[in-house]
């Protein structure tokens, strides 16, 4: 018995299912606006929702050829609630369909109902507002999107609910949505066997579901935060993020061990791992955030695999390195 048959067998009353038929904007041309690494305001772009122009109090922005919209206003357009965590620079969106979406400033990984997925572009802050790529916003908020190049207009269309009945099942709804590859989620947890009526399942087809983030354990996050606290605990979040990324960059580099623990405890780069300081380290909130953001792909020192204080570390080896950046009291190099 397939999933659709099992659903029909258990349905006592219609189950409401939302279909997200997505039109990707990854290649959306923006000829009127030059792509830049830094975001710029796009004053001539119009946003329409269900055929009506939307008045935004904050400007639409463009970065690297992508159109970005302010998270708070975009969420409000779709009836979602938004909470802002200033300390961690995170936005949490609670949608009208029961989804919980967590976005971090400069963090490419998005949390969708507890699962982690990698976006191919990251949210960012500009003028005190968090911005998200329009394509990803459409996927996460269940809307169709199309782009009119001549009019420089993005059309957003909410997808009406579909009712699963004996006559209209997942296969038929999927065909109507234009996709034969649907993924069934019940409050964010995939359930291929039983769908409870009260669970309000959603059928969505977001492209980020093809890009699950590499998992990490809480033990790894805590260890990364502890060494970050020891090495840069009295410095800024940016400094702590850079230290955490040196360790993760080493994990990815064939010249170094393959785990966070082995990188930290091997060699001479991290003396606190051998003198007891690391064991006694109690990471503060900033170090915990830096470790989490680094594990979620936020990297401010590219592929640096060394860091050192030039006032303390001197000699031919350190002078031979290529410096990527200087953050706080440390130079980060490869």
List keywords for this structure.
334 residues, alpha+beta, Arc Repressor Mutant, subunit A, 2 domains, five-stranded antiparallel β-sheet, 11 helices, elongated, disordered N terminus, SleB_dom1, signal
- Unreliable parts: 1-36, 179-204
Global outline: elongated
Distance between the termini: 56 Å
Helicity level, as a percent range?
25-40%
Mean pLDDT, rounded to whole units? 80
- In DSSP terms, counting alpha (H) and pi (I) runs of 4 or more, how many helices? 11
Radius of gyration, taken over Cα atoms and rounded to an integer in Å: 23 Å
Strand order of the biggest β-sheet: 2-5-6-13-12
Number of strands: 22
Tell me about the largest β-sheet: 5 strands, antiparallel
Content of β-strand: 25-35%
Number of domains: 2
Output the structural class.
alpha+beta
Keywords: Signal
Domain Cell wall hydrolase SleB: 235-333
Protein name: Stalk domain-containing protein
Signal peptide: 1-34
